[in-house]
Amino acid sequence: MGISSLAISQVSGATKESAQSNKSKESHIKKLQIVCVGAHPGDPEFGCGGTMAKYSDAGHAVTFLYLTKGEASDPKISYAQMAALRIKEAEASCKILNALPLFAGQIDGNTVLDKTQNQEMTKMILALKPDIVFTQWPVDAHPDHQVTGLLPLTAWIRSNRQFHLYFYEVNTGSETMSFTPTDYVDITSVRDRKKLAMFAHKTQDPIATYNDYFKPLEEFRGLEAGVKAAEGFIHFKAIGERSSIIGLNG
Ligand SMILES: [Zn+2]
């Protein structure tokens, strides 16, 4: 379980130690800054809400950076009204997962990948001093998801790979494509809370989306990982970090 061993379990070990010890020891625990980027309110929650719940439960700081406010999701409602509704939903959802919601200010259905937006995203991400950034896998049927995958990739490259970069999937089969996880997180213990966070996005028909896509996906990734329910990720590694085939190292 790649991510679990990378960060989550690392801190649960430290937490156990501090419980037996005094307060001064707690200050030595490395609190990780986790940033999860999503095109629309709901993408981080549906794609990796279980993993984010585990991070925040382990004492890490989790920020959801939504590229847009999801303002274009209902043609019968004005952008301003829809944005207001979806900000409220995102705030409710983040409260359940103990995450901080931030909005990058791009427009739903009209996201832009250019020099200026690359600079903006790099600035925003680096200001949060992340240890790990999660974002959407860019091979996706939704153009906003493509942009959301590539902006943080550029930030990662431009910052000389200062943080770990993981990609997550959403609505695999109809949106995310060609996604083969390198790492899995067992979300069995936080599955119900993830569900609550997903269902907070009331304007997005969350029950049908959960039943049609995310419930089977969590179980499918769980089968691959040998647990009841899991979320899968692609850990994007710099060339120097890639391991060799066993027996041919060096
Ligand atoms: Zn989306």
User: Total helix count?
Assistant: 8
CATH architecture: 3-Layer(aba) Sandwich
* The CATH superfamily title: LmbE-like
Strand content: 15-25%
Question: What is the overall pLDDT average?
Answer: 89
Low-confidence stretches: 9-25
| Major sheet strand order | 3-2-1-4-5-7-6
Largest sheet: 7 strands, mixed
- Helical coverage, percent range: 40-55%
The first-level CATH class is given as: Alpha Beta
Structural class: alpha/beta
| Span between termini | 25 Å
Ligands bound to this protein structure = zinc ion
Number of strands: 7
Order of helices and strands: HHEHEHEHEHEEHHE
Any idea how many domains? Answer: 1
- Radius of gyration using CA atoms only: 18 Å
Keywords:
single chain, 250 residues, alpha/beta, Rossmann fold, 8 helices, 7 strands, binds zinc ion
Offer a quick outline of the entry:
It is built from eight helices and seven strands. With 250 residues, the protein is an alpha/beta fold.
How would you describe what is shown here?
It is built from 8 helices and 7 strands, in the order ααβαβαβαβαββααβ. With 250 residues, the chain is α/β, with parallel strands linked by helices. α6 (143-158) links the parallel β4 and β5 (164-168). The longest helix has 20 residues, at 206-225. The radius of gyration is 18 Å and the shape is globular. The relative contact order is 0.16. Residues 9-25 have low confidence and may be disordered. Zinc ion binds at residues 39-40, 43, 142, 145.
